[in-house]
Amino acid sequence: MTGTMTKRKKISLIGSGMIGGTMAYLCAQKELGDVVLFDVVKNMPQGKALDLSHSSSIADTNVKVTGTNSYEDIKGSDVVIITAGLTKAPGKSDKEWSRDDLLPFNAKIMREVGENIKKYCPNAFVIVITNPLDVMVKVLHEHSGLPKNKVCGMAGVLDSSRFRHFIAEKLNVSPRDVQAMVIGAHGDKMVPLTRYVTVNGIPLQEFIKKGRITQEEIDEIVERTKNAGGEIVNLLGQGSAYFAPAASAIEMAEAYLKDKKRVLVCSCYLEGQYGHKDMFVGVPAVIGGNGVEKVIELELTPEEKELFDKSVEEVRKLQKAIKALGLEHHHHHH
Ligand code: A3D
Known about the structure:
One of its GO terms (molecular function) is L-lactate dehydrogenase (NAD+) activity. Keywords: NAD, Nucleotide-binding, Oxidoreductase. Helix content is 42%, strand content 19%. The protein contains ten helices and 14 strands. The strands form four sheets. A six-stranded parallel beta sheet has the order 3-2-1-4-5-6. The two termini are 30 Å apart. The site of 3-acetylpyridine adenine dinucleotide has 32 residues, from helix 1 and helix 3. The site of 3-acetylpyridine adenine dinucleotide (A3D) has 32 residues, from helix 1 and helix 3.
């Protein structure tokens, strides 16, 4: 499949599970480019690809969707989106659900994926979705050898979409007109920025004044946003959220492919911004044809900064745990 000359963009999805399959469907519906579904499970990605190919006839779009178990097929990809890994640690119940338990399993997978990106598509824009998100982005980045602007993580768009939805629902307005950001690490300590919420430019404060929403209701929305991933895990009974995560990652991929210069919260490499360096964490950034083109640094209040730093502290802890696994990048001498 890879030898064919094509002017279409190529999007490779590493992991063809719930989010991978949904992203492939969105790519086909939006005619974003040819899609390669990769998975370690035999036949499954090929089956999904065949099903998706048939949907193209009805959607009246023309993209090629293929499934594979061989990394060679991701050769020359323009975009790679990674969901490979586990959603729940073996032996843990729903009540004990934590993204951090996935670390030892998923870190090894990121190393493998990173090495194959380096080998087959070193010019790709890479979006990581696998949890625990921010540390997985770092592991992937190290093993892929890609420049920092070509690797980022999807979490902020999703967490912000949840925040926006709950506010829109409360105010009975379209979520499209609610601008709101969730920054920081993707975990229980993520930071929904209430102060920056607007409804088509109108500060949320105006709605509090008019009694359309109370501070207590906003506080509840902040808490529900932070726990939304767990709320869905408990309701589903197996696996975790996938529709909104897929839509979020595709929005980022589209911003890159079409050089849209969208302002989106992504897990980006920090080099001193927000007082942190040498780590990936969720911050607003401009996503365009050069990948992560600019990290936007907000002026946080001391309270907001404290919450941000606390969430970053979680990432640092996990980075230490990664070191203990001995998975760091070694220069191979062949
Ligand atoms: P799931 O449907 O289980 O799909 C994961 C796929 O990865 C499965 O098909 C596996 O076979 C495959 N896989 C396992 N090991 C490998 C490997 N070595 N190489 C290639 N593929 C492999 O899960 P999902 O799609 O629902 O979720 C995938 C990941 O996304 C999980 O880690 C979730 O925790 C994470 N997730 C993150 C967010 C964020 O906002 C960051 C949201 C939702 C889910």
